[in-house]
Amino acid sequence: MENPHAERQAVLLERILKNTSKCTETILELNNSLEEIIQANYHLQTAANLSMQYRKNVQYNLTSAKSHHTQHHDKP
């Protein structure tokens, strides 16, 4: 005759292992998704940096052109 306590423990351990395996699989899927998001964000960050630098360059050129225009039109 088997020990009912040991039987119950074996069933519980089996459930724990099954659930742990499912959790591990889910975490691996989550890691893969996060990797994809990080990669996508890298490209977005690059585009954002280029856009910001372009805006700064345009602003600098507009300020410079305005200053240049003002200097030439203010002379008698």
Automatic annotation (TrEMBL):
Its main location: nucleus. Keywords: Cell cycle, Cell division, Centromere, Chromosome, Cytoplasm, Cytoskeleton, Kinetochore, Microtubule, Mitosis, Nucleus. The keyword Nucleus applies. InterPro entries: DASH_Dad4 (IPR013959). It is found in: Chromosome, Centromere, Kinetochore; Cytoplasm, Cytoskeleton, Spindle; Nucleus. It comes from the Eukaryota. Pfam families: DASH_Dad4. Belongs to the DASH complex DAD4 family. This is DASH complex subunit DAD4. It comes from Lentinula boryana.
